[in-house]
Predict the structure.
Amino acid sequence: MLNNKSKPFYHQKIGIIGGGQLGKMLAMAAAPWSIAITVLDKEPLSSARGYTHEHLEGDPLNYDDILKLGLSQDIITIEMENVNVEALLELQRLGKKVCPSPEILRIIQDKGEQKHFFSKHHLPSSEFEVFENLQDLLNAINLQRWVFPFVVKSCRAGYDGKGVFVIHDPKDLIGLPENRYLIERKVDLAQELSVIVARNAQGECKAYPVCELHVHPQAHLLSHMTCPAQISEELQQKATALALQTIQAFELEGIMAVEFFVDQNGQLWLNEVSPRPHNTGHHTIEACITSQYEQHLRAILNCPLGFTETFFHSAVVNVLGPEGMSGSPVYHGLDQLLAFKGVVPHIYGKKKSQPHRKLGHVTILADSPENLQILLDKVQKTLYITVI
Amino acid sequence: MLNNKSKPFYHQKIGIIGGGQLGKMLAMAAAPWSIAITVLDKEPLSSARGYTHEHLEGDPLNYDDILKLGLSQDIITIEMENVNVEALLELQRLGKKVCPSPEILRIIQDKGEQKHFFSKHHLPSSEFEVFENLQDLLNAINLQRWVFPFVVKSCRAGYDGKGVFVIHDPKDLIGLPENRYLIERKVDLAQELSVIVARNAQGECKAYPVCELHVHPQAHLLSHMTCPAQISEELQQKATALALQTIQAFELEGIMAVEFFVDQNGQLWLNEVSPRPHNTGHHTIEACITSQYEQHLRAILNCPLGFTETFFHSAVVNVLGPEGMSGSPVYHGLDQLLAFKGVVPHIYGKKKSQPHRKLGHVTILADSPENLQILLDKVQKTLYITVI
C-alpha cells in the first residue's frame, strides 16, 4: 500500500556498492520496474556500466566514497562484503536503509566472528578456534591442541578460496603472513551444497531449491553447479531448514547464500554465508520466475517475496580466464552454444582476462538430470577462451 | 566462427532508433552478452535511458540525427517504423548493416505499399484500393465502387489504430484531412491473432506460438493478449505457416509481428506487419527461454535463432494511462501483484501519463487457460492508475 510517509517501492533509489557481474545483474533486475540504480565501483568501465542510471567511480573501502554514494539514495546495498562498514553505520544513523545491515557485514567480514555467530546461534559448523595473530596460531599448533590435517583460514579479506590453507604437517605453515587466523576441523567432505534464501523486513522468508557445487580442482573456484541437488529428500529438507534458520538468526533483509559441507556420514556442516546475490544462484535468472537478483530487490524494498520453485534441471558453468596468460578475452564456440537448446551464455564484458578470473557463465536448462549432464559435457567441450 | 574480417558477434555495436519501452527491452536483452547499445530518442529521459552504453538525443525522422547515430555503430536497428529512410539508405551505402533494410521500412511506412506487397506475394489480405489524395478517395466512393461498410486508412503515419476509420455511411467521411488513403474491405471479424516470427541472414526462420489479441473498445489499443491462442490446431498451423511465408517474402533480417484477422468463416486475412519487437510479444520474456528481444538480436547478428516454445499459458495486460487526465502516474495495487504467483509487472518509467498511453504491462503465467483467466481477472481488478 502507498502511504504519504514514504515513496512507493518503484520510486525508491537504490545504490549498489560494487559494479562487478553481481552488481550488473542486480541492476538489470531493477529494470522491469524502472527503479533508478546507482553503482559505485573502482573501475570507470565496470561490468555494471551501461545498466545503471548513474555510475560513480570510488573505492568500496573508502569512507567518503561510500558516503557520497549513499547520501543521494534511499537504500544502499552491496554486491561484495569487503566494504567500509563505518560509512554504512553513518548512513544508517542518517536514516538511510542499509541492506545487509552494517552489523551483519561486520560479522561476515571476519571469518572468526562468523564462526562465533554460528556457534552462538547453535548452527552446526565444524569446531574452530580463533587466534589474534600468527604467533598465537603457531603456539597452539606447537602445543598440539589441533591434530593434522586441519584448515587454517585468514579471518579477513579472504574470498574465492584465497586465504584458506589445508595444513597436513608443519611445513604447510611456512610463509604464512601476519593476520588474525582461524583453525577449523577439516570436514571429511562428500559434497558441497548451497541454498539461496531471502527474508524481508516483515520476516517473510523463502528458499530456492538446494544446489550442488562442483569445485575447480586447481583454482578452488566453483567450476559448475547443478540444481536441484541430486540428494535425498531428507537432506534437501534439512539443508533448506538450516538455511532458513541461518537467515533468521541474522535477521537479514535481503538474500543470503548459505553454503554447506556434507561429510562422509551424510552430516551437514555450515561452511559460510554471503549476505548478497551469489555465484551459486545465477541459474535462477532462467530457471525460476523470480531470480535471486529480483528477490534481493523485493526483500530490501520490503515487497512480497517472489516464488522460488524451479521449472528445470539446471546447471551453471563458470567461464574462467585461462591459466598462465592475461589479456583481452576471446570466446570461442559462443555462437555454437547459441544453437544448443536450453543453453544461455552470459558474458560479463570484462576487458581483461586473468587466470581463473570470472569472465562469464553459461546457464543450462534441461528436463532431466541425464539430459542436463549431456548438455553440460557439450558446453564444456565447445566453449574455450584464449587471450590476445 | 570467428574470422579476421569481422568482429565476433559480442563485439558488434548496435544502435537502436527509438528509446521507448521496446527500445528499452531490446537494450536489456543485449545485457547478458554485454553488447554495447546506443539509443537515439527525442527525449533525454527516454524509457531506455539507464540501460544503454550511450544515449543520444535526436529525432528519428531527422537525416543528420540518424546519420550521427549510425556512423559509430556496426548495426542499426529500430523500435519504431517512423524513421528517416533516406539516412538509413546512406548508412547502408557506407557499409553499415541496417535491420530491417530501408527498402522494407519504405514499404511498411505506407499502408498502401504494404497491401501491394501482400498482393504481389499472394499473401491473403482483404481487397483494397489506394488513392493518391482525398479527392480521388471521395470520387471512388461517389461512384459507388465500394459498398458500405468499409475501412478507410491513412497510408502514412497511422499507428495504434490512429488513422483508421470504419465508414458506415457518407457522414463518416466528413472532416477527413488531406492524405494518401486506402480503402479496405471490412473483414467480418471473429478474432485477431498475432504471430511473432524471426529470420536471420542465413535464412533460418522460427515462429513463436500464436497469440490472441483482445482489443480495448474505446482506445482501439491492445487491452490484453493470451498465448497460445485457444484456436484449432489447423488454424494455428495455417497462421504460423502464413507468418513464416510473410517474413520470407520480405527477406527480413530480424523479428516481425504478423497480425491476422479471422473472419466468421474461420478464414485468415493478413492485417499488417511490424518488422521489429512488438507489443504482442512481451510475454516471451518470461514464457520462453529466448525472448522476442533476444531473438531480434540473434537475427540481426546472424547468430543461430533461439528456441520459441512456451512453457506456460500466458497473458499480457497493457497498463494504460487513464482517460480524461494527464500527469505523473501512480500505480495502485502494484505491490499486491508481486504476491500473486506467476504475475510479473513491468513499469516503463514514463514520467507523464496521458489517456491510453502505454505505461507498462503485466505478464501472467499459468498452467492452464482456466487458471490464466482467473489470474487475469485478479490482475485487472487489483491494478489501477491515477495521476497527480
Remarks:
- DSSP finds eleven helices and 20 strands in chain A.
- The longest strand of chain A covers residues 189-199.
